[in-house]
Amino acid sequence: MVTMQDVAERAGVTKQTVSNVLSGRVAVRPATAARVRAAIDELGYTPNLVARSLATGSTKTIGLFVPTVVGSFYAELIEEVEDVLEEHGYHLLLCTTRLDGERARRHLAGLTSRSVDALLIAGDNDLIDHLPLLADARFPVVLCAWETETPDRFPVVTIDYERAGYLAGRHIRELGHRKVAVLASPSHAVRIEGFRRAFTADGLTVPESAVHYAPEPTPAGGFEAAAAALAASPEVTALFATHDVLALGALEAAREAGRSVPQDLSVVGHDDTLEVQVARPALTTVSIPKREMARQAIEQLLRAITRSGTQTNSLQLLRPELVVRESTGPAAG
Amino acid sequence: MVTMQDVAERAGVTKQTVSNVLSGRVAVRPATAARVRAAIDELGYTPNLVARSLATGSTKTIGLFVPTVVGSFYAELIEEVEDVLEEHGYHLLLCTTRLDGERARRHLAGLTSRSVDALLIAGDNDLIDHLPLLADARFPVVLCAWETETPDRFPVVTIDYERAGYLAGRHIRELGHRKVAVLASPSHAVRIEGFRRAFTADGLTVPESAVHYAPEPTPAGGFEAAAAALAASPEVTALFATHDVLALGALEAAREAGRSVPQDLSVVGHDDTLEVQVARPALTTVSIPKREMARQAIEQLLRAITRSGTQTNSLQLLRPELVVRESTGPAAG
DNA sequence: CTGAAAGCGCTTACAG
DNA sequence: CTGAAAGCGCTTACAG
């Protein structure tokens, strides 16, 4: 491998001068710089980033924890994160936790060895049990897409999930629906709360019995939950799925139950992932500003890297938006 | 940050001894080792991986290029790769190329600085134009899920795509279908070829006009392609989608065209991704051994890392399998 | 504007 | 079984 020293010898300077040419931190006489550049090209030199990292203390890499990469939500988030990172010359070290705390713990231990400059944790899950370990982290940590209680050691960039649920509920209520059910994932309590609030304004309630939990966060899980909901209360005219994937299953369940959407049944999702944009009928859903969330989170992270030590304890809430498509309509009767 | 030197002082030894305790390469007297371990615990020492990398020349990180992470195919592949990597103590640096050669080139340039031990490139695409750069790579490169001509500089672990297409075709042909169409992505020529071969045995042909290219690799793209196919030849009784996502769109298109699947129209997909396992009707598809492919590719990579220099030029073909579900049936009439 | 020196935190032979 | 030395390839003050 060709080193900075090799380039220096070839150009008839010392390696410090080569370093100066490369970094641009110190002015170098044009003629010298040109000789150095020529030597670099001739030798095909590329700097050794590992050596640079050791000297500077920065790896130009950030770690990203996500529960999974299957399913559009996190996949889209990752690509956004990558884009922002690239603008800043950072690389991405990925770890999917699979909702497995032990797995996350092992990876965290690996990262703790200063091989990343910072860590972004997306999605609340079992990880919360392992935050003690995070407290020892030698690098800044930022949390995003966090729905449950946000630990106040770390900056959080997330969505106003309560409002997200509220927007879904208000839309449904304004369409005249009175008997509704919720298809949910266990960790989506805040969205459900917001959804409920939209109804209390009218003196209505969404009882706990109207909330049906999906066995798994997949269309199949949503199918099951929706089938259960419709069987339990056939008079239900609207469904709120706290997750788009669940809504996809709900659309199938409605079809099997012989109820057409939106004439006999309205369905609202949450996330606005790519897959629902092509569902039939196209899904009305609450859109999450993923791009904005990724950008804000990474910027928090980069800020924290620069002025290390002064970890700010901020909570940033991004606003969701209702996207009305074809799966919701006025309540029959 | 606490360093090996700190641990050594605390334990009353030199840092080499600490290094020996940690690596286990050299025997250390139990009493000494115990003192060292105690010091490590008390100080909360974790080794600096960057320094270790500089000394050893290995970063214990591999790079992975995928076209995208949205959509199950690559997402599932990534999680498999991660699993295998973890068994070997490696980290994953991810780069989604978005089929953008320039983007891939930039990332490759970044990696070339020896910050990864090896690179796995999954999915053939514009990258092929940038292979010249790859030739300069200082680390082993392995290709996987490669359908087009496989450049013979690098080991390739891929699927027998010709056979995959053939399996889909044979199934369709055996069900008695004679008028068929193909919904394809541009880079899936090999699958289409295999599909065709299944028909030539019976003296049938699948003309180029029966191949409909999807404007994009999404359900929406599949929808469009299927709608075009059915409009062009209403007598078609079976559809082969070279991509499961396209098949999903085809299912919708059939529904809109008033053709029930599989009674009026059979649909076969390719990939066996998670989303099609919950489609209704459940999709008959060609299953790709993703887990096996990930495992073999990573093992090739690790082997190449160990005995560097002797890059083997092997082509490993994994066999696909037909999975019959509900979307295919005998040709009507 | 350029060079000599020290250091980042580890590992790897090599003596003792 | 333990320690002294050199080196991995860079950067960062500091002189000149």
TrEMBL record, chains A, B:
InterPro entries: Cro/C1-type_HTH, HTH_LacI, LacI/GalR-like_sensor, Lambda_DNA-bd_dom_sf, Peripla_BP_I. PROSITE patterns: HTH_CROC1, HTH_LACI_1, HTH_LACI_2. It comes from the Bacteria. Residues 2-56 form the HTH lacI-type domain. PANTHER family: HTH-TYPE TRANSCRIPTIONAL REGULATOR DEGA, LACI-RELATED TRANSCRIPTIONAL REPRESSOR. Keywords: DNA-binding, Transcription, Transcription regulation. CDD domains: HTH_LacI (cd01392), PBP1_LacI_sugar_binding-like (cd06267). Residues 3-50 form the HTH cro/C1-type domain. Gene3D superfamilies: 3.40.50.2300, lambda repressor-like DNA-binding domains. This is LacI family transcriptional regulator. GO terms for molecular function: DNA-binding transcription factor activity; transcription cis-regulatory region binding.
